[in-house]
User: Which sequence fits this backbone?
């Protein structure tokens, strides 16, 4: 890149015209050297200014890249938090399922016992009354429902 690259064509013509005019004297040669120095200084100042603009643009770019990465990480963090909450909820549901399965097993055993009681009652008494058995089961069902509703209120 030459010193004239940042100058317009008119500015270059003016610099050349002044240079030719001043070359006619010894004093002119000194002034020409000073003028050339001034042109180089102006060029260097322009280059420094462009370099500062480039550095600013690079800093802005780095900032945007870091910001975009942070936003992406925030998205991953949010997904991780959602996943953890879902896993926690799944653990709670698994525990509740295990409790319900245990309750079902307990009720199955009660039903088996009740069936044995009914069969034994029928064998022991010729005057077996199905209403007595029904009353027995109704009381148990009411107790189980009360216990179940109390358990649901706790959870």
Assistant:
């Amino acid at each position: 890149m030459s010193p004239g690259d940042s100058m317009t064509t008119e500015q270059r013509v003016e610099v050349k015209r002044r240079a030719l005019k001043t070359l006619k004297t010894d004093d002119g040669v000194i002034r020409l050297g000073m003028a050339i120095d001034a042109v180089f200084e102006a060029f260097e100042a322009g280059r420094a200014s462009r370099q500062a603009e480039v550095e600013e643009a690079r800093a802005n770019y780095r900032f945007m890249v870091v910001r975009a990465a942070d936003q992406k990480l925030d998205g991953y963090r949010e997904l991780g938090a959602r996943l953890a909450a879902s896993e926690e909820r799944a653990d709670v549901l698994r525990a509740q399922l295990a409790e319900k399965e245990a309750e079902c097993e307990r009720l199955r055993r009660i039903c088996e016992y009740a069936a044995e009681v009914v069969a034994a009652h029928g064998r022991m008494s010729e005057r077996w009354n199905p209403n007595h058995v029904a009353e027995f089961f109704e009381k148990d069902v009411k107790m189980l429902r009360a216990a179940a509703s109390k358990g649901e209120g706790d959870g």
About this structure: The CA atoms of residues 143 and 149 lie 10 Å apart. The chain has a mean pLDDT of 76. The radius of gyration is 48 Å.
